[in-house]
Amino acid sequence: xxxxKQLHQQAIxxxxxxxxxxxxxxxxxxxxxxxxxxDGYFLLAMINLEVGQIAKAIKLIEKANDIAPxxxxxxxxAKCHSLRGxxxxxxxxxxxxxxxxxxxxxALDTLGVALSRxxxxxxxxxxxxxxxxxxxxxxxxxxNSGVSSKFAGKFEDARAHFEHAxxxxxxxxxxxxxxxxxxxxxxxxxxxSRLQAxxxxxxxxxxxxxxxxxxxKEYEGLKDYTSAFxxxxxxxxxxxxxxxxxxxxxxxxxxxxxxxxxxxxxxxSSQADDFAKAGDSSHQPIFVMGMPRSGTxxxxxxxxxxxxxxxxxxxxxxxVAVKELAQTPSPRVLDVETLRKAMQLEPAxxxxxxxxxxxxxxGDSPHFVDKLPFNFFYIGLIRRALPNxxxxxxxxxxxxxxxxxxxxxxxxxSPYYAYAYNLQNIGRFYNRFHTLVHQWQATGxxxxxxxxxxxxxxxxxxxxxxxxxxxxxxxxxxxxxxERNQAPVSTASKVQVRQPINQSSIGRWTxxxxxxxxxxxxxxxxxxxxxx
Length: 532
Fold this sequence. Notes:
The protein is mainly α. The protein has a domain at 247-525: Rossmann fold. It has helices at 4-16, 20-33, 38-50, 54-67, 71-83, 87-95, 105-117, 121-134, 139-151, 155-168, 173-181, 192-199, 205-221, 225-243, 247-265, 272-278, 296-304, 317-326, 336-342, 347-362, 379-385, 398-407, 423-442, 453-458, 460-470, 517-525, and strands at residues 285-290, 309-311, 367-370, 390-395, 448-452. It has a 5-stranded parallel sheet, with helices on both faces. α7 packs parallel to α9, α15 (247-265) runs parallel beside α23 (423-442) and α20 packs across α21 (379-385). The chain is globular. It starts with a helix and ends in a 7-residue tail after the last helix.
């Protein structure tokens, strides 16, 4: 029988070779020989993490820490919790892994990425800095540090980190896109030749997507909108074909919400007392939601400039709270089964779980903004669980919204953005969204506000005064000056929202008008007006 040291070596080799079955068998032998072998449990956790069994990985890391707590174990525990959007648990794990106790660059980077995932970019930068001080030749460390620098508004630092990553790894397609996304392109200063060369070397659909979006950003900077659209269309068509998406997948979400949450609410004002009694009484949350690229980040920045409001970022916590309580078996947080089962849950338990999950970030702030766009699928559940919360839903011009979604590189691994690879699918998605939110408005809910983006940026002061009144907040002049808000921004609007409120994004879709005739026709048929 091999000794434990040999089994460890073999298990690590199998894990590195992604032979998870063999690695698992070897680790089981380790813990059978020595039930107190903490590394054996940790390796089992890494196997489960690799195959997507995050809950099992968490339990195994906790078992390893019970035997012999180590900073490296807490680093990967933070990673697991970050993948589940569990902000408080990430911070708890990080507190058990002080930066001065960690001298393994990969563990430092792992903690930095976990913190970045839950919006703690300034904290993340310290871990990335130490990782780079220990290993100056790792392109991933430079890239990860660049991402957090960008979200923290340190754009020149980000630019330098991305360039460094590309020098080390010329085909680092994510770094190419991240650099292009910073803007600053001119005829004299661009990366088009380098990107075109990189495009010829890509080997995967996802690499094509990153390089295509990088090229599109740079072509747009040179006002070559035809080339920008063409390169996006080629890459997105291939990506769509590779995932087998059908719009019916998303239509099922809208159908479910209309058949359950909307039906349950009925007349919002007549049931207000019932909801107030059933849910958690907290007044802290202000939910800002809407289609991606519709102005949600701008509204978050406006509100969080108020002295009584904290920006909590794009929290996954409401959906995760629902998922935990519903206990549905699917790996996705948002699915039809979970939405249906959620209607059977006690509203107060959902609200309490959400408030508990958010406390590590929001503390005792009188109010906080939760700006997850797709929370519009939970409007009725939020109303039940947190009847005193404010719900603000952005509505932007359909053509600007849809073209904005098409131009944006969303997470390639998320099923929730699959609609965005085709303009017609985006149009269908917007149409269902438009119908749904107007149905919510028609219920007369007193804590729901549909906010028009164009009206907001054209007449900021009047709309912001109205917005603050809706939220029960006093007028503060600083809310007009989003460019002074120094809080990190973890969204696609990270560059734009550091500018004063302006109208420059209105009508941007018209640059692509030669490619949008079918979408225009669709919205005319649906009688959804748009600015031309």
